[in-house]
Amino acid sequence: MYEKDGEKYFVMDTHTHFWDATPENWVKGAEEYAEGWINCFHAYQGLGPADTHWTIEDFQTQTPERFEKDMFEDGHVDVAVFQPTYLKEWYTTGFNTTEMDNEMAARHPDRLIVNGRFDPRDGDPGLRQLEEDAQKFGLKGVKLYTAEWNSGSRGYKLDDPICEPFFEKCIELGIKNIHVHKGPTIWPLDKDAFDVADVDKVATRYQELNFIVEHVGLPRIEDFCFMATQERNVYAGLAVVIGGLMHARPRFFAKVMGELMFWVGEDKMLFGADYAIWEPKWQVEGLVAWDYPDETFSDYPAFTTESKKKILGLNAAKLYDVKVPQELQLSNGGTPAARDDSQLVESR
Amino acid sequence: MTDRAHVLDALGTVFDPELDESITSLRFVTSCDVSADGDVDVRLRLPTPQCAPNFAFLMAADARDAVRRLPEVREVTVVLEDHYTGDEINGALGRGEAFAGAFPGETEGELDALRELFHRKALVARQAQLCDAWLAAGATAEEVTARRVSDLPDEPGARRCRELRAHLGIPSEGDDPALVRPDGAPIEAGDLKHWLRMASLVRTSLEANGGICRSLLAVRYDIDPDPEEVAA
């Protein structure tokens, strides 16, 4: 919970990690990729305020104590959702697996939610694994990284027929939140791997599911926004938008937030700090203090206290059935994460 | 005799297809050496080791082709540094092969359709910038949509619009409309507000990506924030 100027904010961080990228975990022969990946993440941290930068050694892995301090003690986070990123082609035990997340989550079962994953290319064994994971971890969501390499395959699309049994299994198992992260390599390589048209198709088809597009579809924010206005069950994950732009590029941040407020709307935007790339503290405090910098942004919808409360926690709490104390709910009985409000904020 | 300045000028005509900015202004050119005999060696770098291989290839191949077109250059070597598919891309560049040669079996075709898609986006974004400036200067929707190519100002953004139209086969004679949809159709005054909303979003997306790329490059290579930071 974060309190500022008499207002109390329930903070739900929908995108956090707990990883092991130490050299001991690099796959032999793939060291270059493993090292490149974590160094790339580390460079992203450089986009935050200087006093939040860590050494690369600190960055390669986190202790539970550090995680607790950064998230709960300093970071104002009430509840966080772990998003796994396996990358087993590069990291021996995985970069950040559900098992690793679960060890951490076991210390705070009421505050840490573990999301699973599936890879449709794993076929029937993958389906069985998803069932096991759902039972073991009580999954309510999965994170899909469509650009992940798998036995010579460079990525997949969500509307590939191999995904169908997995989405149906999710519905059956009560896994309703599908977090999607696009990446740079999808077969065939001559197409735009960041294209979000496949999300559009499966969102239409599987109305029971919520599709949270991580990093608001970056670098295809425009395609994501055009798509999100059409689909009542598509949400914007703000990880990287806040961490990567709010401090480093404040005017671009203002424009991107304005566009998201206009096209997607405050009911469908979800805070994510993307720890350990960035600590939540400065992002939560910065977002609560934030407004458009000047009048040139007056065409965009106002960013109100209610907008902040929804985006920082109330929308995500709704999607994950997290109980929010009465004093932290909207006083006007508003409806965070409302699907019906997916129309444009103002008429076109 | 072609000297280093000419080579850099040629590299300045090579654009990042996703960002629609030149690779020299983005500071993607690490080094550029011209030997006394006219051999050229260009090194390129990108903001992350995981930048998309297709766009990385386009920039490297375009750089190679732009330098080769210069008079009196001999051997041209273009090397993409610190990239996770650098071996594949540099191998194909060295052999003079196209994209499919870099990633055999991993492509369905070449990169022409991808390039065209991003040319269309770039044109939309550039026009949004022009249109915003006109409206800010007091022009009405009717006046803006009535403007012709001959009314375009002589500045880099408008020149880039003409180039993009030429790439896309959209006519840009003096009498053609200044603002067009991605398929070349003119924009009616009554549709301007809606078109501009869409176009501004495309522009914001391109600019935000460019901002992230510039920031990451500066962090990755420990170089000073570039002058564009101030403008941003």
Task: Tell me what you see in this structure.
The complex is a heterodimer of chains A (348) and B (232). With 348 residues, chain A is of the alpha/beta class. Chain A has helices at 31-45, 56-60, 64-73, 98-105, 123-137, 164-173, 197-205, 221-228, 241-246, 250-263, 280-289, 305-319; strands at residues 2-4, 7-9, 12-16, 79-82, 112-114, 141-145, 149-150, 153-154, 177-181, 210-213, 234-237, 269-270. A 5-stranded parallel β-sheet of chain A has the order 6-9-10-11-12. A 3-stranded parallel β-sheet of chain A has the order 3-4-5. In chain A, α5 (123-137) packs parallel to α6 (164-173) and α8 (221-228) packs parallel to α10. The longest helix of chain A is centred in the first third of the chain and has 15 residues, at 31-45. With 232 residues, chain B is mostly helical. Chain B has helices spanning 4-11, 53-68, 86-94, 99-102, 112-136, 141-146, 156-168, 192-220, 228-231, and strands spanning 15-16, 21-22, 29-34, 40-44, 76-80. In chain B, α5 (112-136) runs antiparallel to α7 (156-168) and α5 packs across α8. The longest helix of chain B is centred in the last third of the chain and has 29 residues, at 192-220. The radius of gyration of chain B is 19 Å and the shape is elongated. Chain B starts with a helix and ends with a helix.
